[in-house]
Amino acid sequence: MTHIGAKIKKLREDMNLTLKDLAEKSGVGKSTISEIETGKATNPKTATLQKLSNVLGVTVNDLLSTEEKLDIAIESMSKIAYMAKDALDYHNNCIVKDEESLYSNDINSIVNNFKNETFSADEQNEIINYIKFVISKRK
Q1: What's the CATH code, domain 3-64?
Q2: CB-based burial of residue 103 (10 Å sphere; 0-12 exposed, 13-18 middle, 19+ buried)?
Q3: What is the pLDDT of residues 28-53, one digit of tens each?
Q4: Which end of the chain has fewer CB atoms < 10 Å from its terminal CB, N or C?
Q5: Would you say the pTM of this structure is higher than 0.85?
């Protein structure tokens, strides 16, 4: 039996509630409560715990052991880190694409001033690097 399951069972029994009573009062299925209490349900949903804790007169936080709280915090931090990395990657890709299209548009404007001239990709990169060099000298 998990800590959370044992705690729910003890609180339920202290209030002289049967599984059926707690199920009816909380809106959580009797079998779900039984699985939580016996440890078969190892990762109950927060919404389920909230419904049970409301009837039992405690907070979800009161039901969790320190280890369970740490596990939840670590999992949440991990999700946040992945989301931040994805957002940063997306942002960096947008900047690079916008910068490249900006240079591309600028290069096309410059090229249009040279009739009958075409520039290879390498030559366009040289032009971009030269423009960057000229801009950097201003600072």
Answers
A1: 1.10.260.40
A2: middle
A3: 999 999 999 998 987 888 899 999 99
A4: C
A5: no
